[in-house]
């Protein structure tokens, strides 16, 4: 049985749009049934139809889509919101309240207040509000989580995360509009590199440990001094359990392409994973030797097996990771529609609570950096 | 505009079936419209419908499918043949003659004669007969081909290819039916590891150089002496141009997962690529330094750009490589249907001629190995 | 012409002793002529003689050695001090004042005051006081320094350094005397992991940039809570030029053996080097591709060429790096003895000023960590 | 107690001379006491004295050295012969017959007959004739041998060895005298790349398996067609035990620096080691995961421990590997002088028998390549 899927944003020329369509389509669970893809209504309607959406469900804007879908018997089962950040809140809230399940791009909202409200809205509506921290969809990231959860590392003592690239290192790009807006508070908000990239690493640190950031201390730098917002940041943090955290993120690290990496050190073992070579996980048991865990090998966790599609030795990539988020959502929605309890292993998609915690951590880091690295509470008020 | 796609074989529990469905579906070009998926007609019909095929196009066997699709206005535009090897020839020939485009799994046929006949059949019918050497779909494999073609390496002097794994190394598996048949001539034919894996590396060597194997000398070994067919082989060869080739393949190489690698050495540079980390290509210009080419970086070849879906630093994998074969076929078929000349860059899918050359090379290697490594002509008779 | 060399400490069973003897002996510059190798005078005399030192120069303690060597015509040209940390100051000062050149193990002294005094003492005596930050002896570390100095990276914006290992991760070692003392303030001083390992990375950051740490902020953690001193530390810092620095060090990072790595990011390029594979240096020019610089390749800097012994592709290791410090010292001392100006390229050995700055940085980090990460001045008083 | 060491050849500007002097001097076992270093007697005498050899033992040629050393009470205990290949036989024979232990550079001799004679000469004289296949001195190469010997891999089925570099790939070097002679039969003998580099890999294959090459089949190519001798070769072989061997060597593999690598596959495990990163050994037990063995880690074999000098995580390199050959020789000679049985673990240095087998294999490969890959006996007559 297939589900109907709709998308808001992700129009012609967008980078994230195709990634969502590939991910949603990969396993044949979702039919792309409706869309409001562009700020220009005509362009959006045209593009949706070129992608196979029927004319009556190729909408001019999200309000039109909400009105059009709301009362259909075959209405979309899941709406992906991939519009500009400042609109995430309003659109997601409206669809949730109308009883749709929603997957919203990160950052979920602009403010902590909005994020708390979305968490409450989803709960009240009994609907899923998922957030696209898609990198946690990699099979071996999920295996790390499973290993921690089943105690392979003992108590986790330390997590070291990175997300470093060099794509904004060129001073000649200071006036390049594709780069400039990211460092302009009027357009990007309170944080640039930490909010854009670092937060993925922070979410992953929480995901694999099953723990929550409690306090943090941040050092922000504008390595290109013309920038108002940070292009490099170091964040030290502590999880609720006391686990120590270190996170470095940079956009001026020439030579790094997409350096999302994570290391986890526990009482009885260590793990290291890097997104650029996501099919290998380095594991060292205390007193043993470094070993390489391969995606797709036998005897991995149910979480990893579920997230794999091809046999060992064949690389999977980011499209498969994103597709795992969609598959989780699809299976969960199918269960809900059938009145079955969803499979817990399908419940690893990032949730509104994760989106909220991330927004709170960004604001906390900004406050700490402004206060010369003072330690601050990183939790959203509703979880303190 | 979408195309209709059908599949023969690839039933429930098959390994290759899901890979084809993911690949065909990835870019939204093909609708899975018809199938004869299983030797058990009832199982096949049921499985097809569970995958969303309508009841009237969920066929019991390939003859029924041929009869059912032949006269439909919306008949399938492409048929994938993923049945047992010995049936490839008959099925593919029947569909080609009925005017369908065909993608057949490797090996295309069992004998050189059959393969030559399929080449002639496709030509006579004016239809595409493609063969699934899907590893040449990787963006950076295509970039290697483009680099060679545009002269970045000068004349190619030497190609060194490997496909080594260790999945058949366990003597306890000698009686495991999933392994045993592969080394039984009655079931596997004249060659085991070279025909199954080595041939991918040989095809890739031809693909990246745009050259054809002319002569070869083979040394086959059964490292587990109980095996009749080889589990390890070394093949030395010469291309038509005189380029030297070396190819090692093994199924007893414990510690290698899926060691499909290729190195190309020319007058002015060298290249090295490995399937297990397919998003990096090592390039060394003569007198320079080793450099790392990243899939998705700017200024790659049109061939590589066309074969990429996500931004640099984000891994793509085998599903995307296979999907590139389907995208090529889809774009080419769309052009043919529209009476347009297909885009040459979309013409890189492996063709019946490649399938034929591979079959001929397998038989040549078997003959050479039986003759203590005598050098033999590796070309199919029709290309001599 | 050969120089005479003497050693204090490094007796039978010591780990650092053989490393010094290999390094001093590697190039035939030094004859091991005198030693006071052990706290037990008899053992020390015996061991020295077994190592080829003549009986009259196999001393019972350093005072005896100072008295014995002071007036010899063939007295030692260089004295290595590899005794317990708390004795470095007294011994080094005595030998410097007696006109000997000295190489002292790190940490140079226990306090900033002592370190400042040694700097002044060496200057007043006109003698070399070198400190064994031997990791900066690697050919490619010196090449990084040369690249920065000649402007290959433009202005350096950011340095990220690490020294992470997992050798103290086992809780069962809390009472192991070989580990325990390191975390006991009475024996180890004010800092454990940062003073022992992190400081190498901090010195390397200064060495490659030619810049000095001005301020820092530290977060210390005892991942094994029973420890009084830190086993994990993050230090953010700023160089005098404004360059941003990040340094992580850990002794609980299971799976890391000796993770001394450094990344340097400038306006026009990035570099990455790791001690565990010291013969490759990753360099990425802005807008270009990652390239791999090989130790021993043609056209490196004079600094790197001087520090290489074998041809490209043949690994060199830590013994060669340490030997480079000795060769620098030997060549410099030979020049001084001959009344020639020493070759500036031979002047890259770490000096008393480096030792002093390191001690000041350790004390600054301890103060900052105690102050919840407050930013503090990291410079020694005499350099403010 | 120290031994006296002498050297013939390795004069000023030679590449191999410094490597021997570093290796012999590294552990303080040998005093460089005598030398005949240059074809120009005056130059040789001068250079030896500059290196610290006393005037009376700085000889003009090897005959003078033989005469001078023969009757000294403190005569050299070991003579290293590093002269042009064609002179190895005569010099080594003369010194052996005069009762000296000899270490001769590879190739040991020019012909199989000479090599057999040296084996007999050494035996008759009761003296060591060692050959400098120094790459087997790496600690982890010795550990591989120990693992095989103690059965960690079960019966060895397959060995795959490589020695590929690209230093002769430039056609502009065809007339470069430093390269040209290597491919000129009048100067280089019957084989170029296989005799120069490939033979190291072949010796290593024998060393680690403890097995001997029995038959082989070779394919030689001159990728630069102007060359008379091969610049690329593939050699298939069989060991006495039936183990399958594959060996590729090339001097036109642009991008490879010094690609000496070896893979060993047995019934119960696989190993992979590469000279460019010699401190890590990849080991995969059957049915397990790839693990990384680190030089210097605890619980390695006595063979590996003996061959290590610095702690785990600190790289060792080629100088240490060569020094292990000298240390073995030194310890063995000390035992012989003391009338003790030498420690078997010190007996891993390559011997005249290894040199002989290598010469025989080179001639066999040349014959096979000339015979279109015919399988030939690779054993020296005296071992058939």
Give a structural overview.
4 copies of one chain form a homotetramer. Chain A is of the alpha/beta class and 384 residues long. Chain A has 2 domains: 138 residues, Rossmann fold (3-Layer(aba) Sandwich), CATH 3.40.50; 173 residues, Dihydrodipicolinate Reductase, domain 2. Chain A has 12 helices and 14 strands. In chain A, the strands form 2 sheets. In chain A, strands 13-12-11-10-6-9-8-7-14 form a 9-stranded mixed β-sheet. In chain A, helix 4 runs parallel beside helix 5, helix 5 packs antiparallel against helix 12 and helix 6 crosses helix 9. The mean pLDDT of chain A is 96. Chains in contact: A-B, A-C, A-D, B-C, B-D, C-D. Chains A and C meet through strand 6, strand 7, strand 8, strand 9 and strand 10 of A and strand 6, strand 7, strand 8, strand 9 and strand 10 of C.
Describe, in short, the structure shown.
The first copy, chain A, is α/β, with parallel strands linked by helices and 384 residues long. Helix content of chain A is 35%, strand content 22%.
Number of helices of chain A: 12
Report the CATH topology name of the largest domain in chain A.
Dihydrodipicolinate Reductase, domain 2
Q: Average pLDDT value of chain A? A: 96
Helix/strand order of chain A, N-terminal first: EHEHHEHEHEHEHHHEEEEEEEHHHE
**Fourth-level CATH superfamily of the largest domain in chain A:** Dihydrodipicolinate Reductase, domain 2
Indicate the percent of residues in helices of chain A.
Answer: 25-40%
Give the CATH architecture of the largest domain in chain A: 2-Layer Sandwich
Shape assignment of chain A: globular
Q: Tell me about the biggest sheet of chain A?
A: 9 strands, mixed
Biggest interface: A-C, 43 and 43 residues
Structural class of chain A: alpha/beta
> What Rg of chain A do the Cα atoms give?
21 Å
Q: End-to-end span of chain A in angstroms? A: 42 Å
In total, the number of strands of chain A is: 14
Strand content of chain A: 15-25%
| Unreliable stretches of chain A | none
CATH C-level name of the largest domain in chain A:
Alpha Beta
Spatial arrangement of strands, main beta sheet of chain A: 13-12-11-10-6-9-8-7-14
Number of domains of chain A: 2
Q: For this entry, what is the oligomeric state of its chains? A: homotetramer
